[in-house]
Amino acid sequence: MKPEELKYAKTHEWVHVDSAKNEDGGMATVGISAFAVEALTDLVFLELPEIGKQVAAGDSLGEVESVKAVSDIYSPVTGEVVQVNEELPEALQWLGEDPYGRGWIAKIRLGDASALENLMDHTAYSKLCADEES
Amino acid sequence: MAYIYNTPQDQQAMLEAIGCDSIDALFDSIPESLRLQRPLKLPAAMGEMELTSHLAALSEKNRSPADTLCFLGGGSYDHFIPAVVDYVASRGEFYTSYTPYQPEVSQGNLQAMFEYQTMICELTGMDVSNQSLYDGGSAAVEGVLMSLDVTRRRGRVLVAESVHPEYRQVIDTYFALLETEVVTLPCPAGTLDLNALEAELTDDTACLLLQHPNFFGCLEEVHEIVDKVHAAGSLLVTIIDPVSLGLLERPGDYGADVVVGEGQSLGTPMQYGGPYLGLMACREKFVRRLPGRIAGETRDRRGNQCWVLTLQTREQHIRRDKATSNICTNQGLFALRASVYLAAMGPQGMREVAELCLQKTAYARQRLGDLERLEIAFDRPVFKEFVLRDRENAVEQLCADAEEAGIFAGVPLGRWYPDLSDCLLVAVTEKRTRPEIERLVDFVSVQAPCGVTHAE
Amino acid sequence: MRNKHATQLIFELSQNGRKAVALPQIDVPERPVEELIPERFLAKKTLGLPQVAEPEIVRHYANLSTLNMSVDTHFYPLGSCTMKYNPKRNERLASLRGIVDVHPYQSERSLQGLLQIFFELQEMLGEISGLDAVSLQPAAGAHGELTALMVAAAYFRDLGEVRTTVLTPDSAHGTNPASARMCGFDTVTVKSTPAGFVDMEDLKSKLDDSVAVFMITNPNTLGLFESNVAEIADQVHARGGLIYLDGANMNAILGVTRPGDFGADMMHFNPHKTFSGPHGGGGPGAGPIAVSSKLGAFLPVPQVRREEAQSECTYRLDWDQPQSIGRVRSFFGNSGVLVRAYCYLRTHGPDGLREVSENAVLNANYLLSRVKHFLPVPQGDRCMHEFVASAAQCKNERGVSAMDLVKRLLDYGFHAPTVYFPLTVKEAVMIEPTETESKEMLDQFAETLFRVLEEPDDLLHEAPHTTRISRPDEVTAARKPVLRWNPSTEE
Questions:
Q1: Cα-flanking dihedrals φ and ψ of residue B156, to 5°?
Q2: Domain, as residue range, for C209
Q3: Three-state SS at A14
Q4: Could you give the CA distance from residue B319 to residue C20 in angstroms, rounded to a whole number?
Q5: Which residues does chain C have within 8 Å of residue A45's beta carbon, measured at their own beta carbons?
Q6: Model confidence over C3-21: pLDDT tens digits?
Q7: Is the ipTM above a cut-off of 0.90?
Q8: Which domain holds residue A72?
Q9: How much is the pTM?
Q10: Nearest CA of chain C to the CA of B378: how many Å?
Q11: Which domain holds residue B371?
């Protein structure tokens, strides 16, 4: 996936919505941005959500840990977790190498699509990252 | 006397460097209205000689197993401590260091921690151990709390009534503020009632907390119990007496999921109940829920094998309100003592200590149980403790009289178990000799019946 | 002289048949083990413990010990941990038979000396805190926090008030929010001002009737006295909440000001810090708590009481407190640590204790006055018993981090200060010299730190250079944890 085509949350998660696959509004693929991966440095552990878990936008979806920091991954959307990237915890380097591809974290069947409206496009998100860096 | 270097000249020079008129002025940020306007009302300072006499006098007001024959147990035991344990633990480089935050100058502590963790794993049959909790009671709580996290069940936890009553009180205190219900299971014949267990194991039960050997010294039917607990999708949290593992099957081998316990028996003096050593070990898959410090092996930048504190994101200084526990300062010194004790004993020594306890306990139990005044309360296999019933129902008096005669005869059970108010818990460690056991037997046998009737 | 050969694991030294103890023969009529314990309970195999001789044990651990820095051997300015000298007399006295060789279930009759010590310690801690009732039970500072929050919860339950929140400053020790959570409270963080104090506006905006407790560290973790503390307490009290004082930094204010006098309702002491208990490579500590009179009834049982008859006093354990939260640990408390604290207090008396704080604060300010010229101290040029410098500028300009600097200090024979805490200061270097160091030592430390800052970046990135190991790979340690020795992994 191209980063330019994704939506972003302020908490540095990305979303890709594939509306064709589901009549309820679509299926969202969620991950964390390259900026977040960079900021976390040397990730050592990832906790995935449970399949079947109902999440609202802003709920914790899992955690990533570096040696001396732990960060929640917040769900950018509302819905049900239907799939998780089972291989990812054993291949954390994918988060750095390919955060928008092999580094995806979960697929969520959208319940209420209105949360999508609060997300940023790539331009707005890039600006947020630039601001945080300075 | 404060342990201070600064002379008045030093102080003056330092104040000048700071640019401050007086030491008092350094406290200017404390508003005058909040200052204490008088000296603290504390006793005047003593020099080392006076303090030594003072403490000696206070110490002499206490009796101890040094002057009184000790059959007290119930979670703290008069085991022998080899001198090598005291020697190692008193080395200032161990004794006056702190948590190994800087691995480069803490490899001694870290390697000792890693060795301790390995020994506890070997002793318990579990995959991973932490680097100590406060004591048996708080370890039991942490074990139960961990089971909630691991199973994601919050409904209830089961606790056998044969678990140390003080540990159960600690659990009650902690759980008073949480939603989870604590259900105490009866132990009418000295061990867990398996029917009650089966009846109370619901699909929202996180764990059973079991002690084996239990508080009464009796062995629990661990195999049957673990099968039932696992069939219900719950965890078995077992409280151990580490000395018993010289003889008994390891909890990891019979299927326990989490092991906790009091490590005082491993080279820590009784010192009126603390500081002691909280043991905790678990299955590998639970390691990220394990509270407390953990040492792990790694390599340094030159490729040398070394050790660091690891998985620190579990801990309060990083995860704060989501930490696995709030523990910070632990019982590292007593973990070190336990390591030295276990190394000194080795497998053969652990077996011998356990067997000495077992044989002496069996002998004392039979001799005391044969007396007219006493009977054995629970007809179950025991390890180093057992319960006696006083047919005269005057346990407190019996113990008081025994103390007069120079014997701590045992721990009366009435304060925790009203049904056992005529009972006494007697512990026999490897230190008790046959003549000492005979002294207790002789003492009881000459006690006149005191005319009180048997408890109903 | 360090023995460079001796770093094998004790398991690697093991040889079948070696042993370090000779236990007595069984002196009672021996019965077959299987007769006493049914076979189903017995171990099927021998324990995998090391088999070593006593001289090997001594050499192994004596050599390991030389790989540690410690207070006995090095300046140890680990901020927030109060690594002061541990008086040797206290060790000797705490090892008297009647103190150390005492069973917790002995009768009160047989423990009058020890109970007297505990009673007097309760009284002394009450006086130092300016609070009314003391429990000696908690096993460490964090355990004291937890116990006090349980006391607070019981108090509000008794009042019939539902209060669900605990406030902690963003500069608080991690134990504060962790303890609050273990009691079932939600935690809300209160911001600090740029000067390092509790932000009053932020506090007011978060204060409502759901707030049970505001946990404050004073002096705070920046080493600053919260001058507004009385006003903070008034605000919290006005909404019916309680003030908890994290007593980690009591070393700054002994006999100068008392938590009870500046508005605290409850607090813990860290006897292993303030009252010089040795830290033992991570513990033990103790965490006695003091509370105001309205909270006394909820303290853990038992309390130690004195009863005065005609000619003499007797001491007893009081279990009769119906409103008590119960017990928070097994047995009475960390007696050994408490006895050392008692010895420390009896050695110092009122004047000595005040001198402790005066010199702790003097030493810290003196070191601050030297360090601030080359390592900025963002929160000003005065402190209490410790101060927090920042390597942020150094990090931005040269890429040299706080960690690089303190790792290099190890080469010069100084233990590192605390780094990256508190979280509110970037590249924090938290320095607590304590009162038991000399001016010469502080000068040497300051000069060394200055010299380190002048050293080439690459040298610092790879420091330390003189220790047996340097910069262990913590990422691998956390990614693929190896938490025990295994013969098979050694190939």
A1: -155, 160
A2: 89-348
A3: strand
A4: 43
A5: 478-479
A6: 766 679 999 999 999 999 9
A7: yes
A8: 3-128
A9: 0.95
A10: 14
A11: 69-78+347-445
